[in-house]
Amino acid sequence: MFFKLIPTTGRPLYLQLMQQIRHAAETGALRDGDQLPGIRTLAEELVVSPNTVAKAYSELEHDGLLELRQGSGAFVCVKRRTRSLADHVQAARRRLGDLIERLREEGLLDEEIKRAFEAELLYAAGIVRKR
Predict the structure, then answer these.
(1) Secondary structure in 3-state letters for the chain
(2) Calpha distance 1→49 (Å, rounded)
(3) What whole-number distance in Å separates Cα of residue 103 and Cα of residue 98?
(4) CA pair distance 83, 74, nearest whole angstrom
(5) pTM higher than 0.70, yes or no?
(6) Confidence of residue 85 (pLDDT cuts 50, 70, 90)
(7) The predicted structure's pLDDT at residue 114
(8) Which of 56, 102, 115, 126 has the fewest CB atoms found within 10 Å of its own CB?
């Protein structure tokens, strides 16, 4: 595998690993059914605690991107992840639609709603600070 963790970024190592596995699955470098290295093996390659790899694998299993099989290892589940992601996006759009409707009822214009939403996205991404 081609994972590389950088301890000096200030970002937790397990999150870095999760992001890299997700990216590999999204770009096709990892395909549905591919087996990832075992926890101990990958921990040794990356020179991290096995707990770091175990946490990343566990979180990705929770997200539906990996399937952990006792005694067999971790397997990529791209198809399940795609369905799960589509379901989440659809649910998010419904919630956003409801919120937009309520904000309009409160008198906000679409452009004001759009600016507020974009500002919150930038804040959540750490690009801007709240005043």
Answers:
(1) CCCCCCHHHCCCHHHHHHHHHHHHHHHCCCCCCCEECCHHHHHHHHCCCHHHHHHHHHHHHHHCCEEEECCCEEEECHHHHHHHHHHHHHHHHHHHHHHHHHHHHCCCCHHHHHHHHHHHHHHHCCCCCCC
(2) 17
(3) 9
(4) 19
(5) no
(6) low
(7) 95
(8) 126
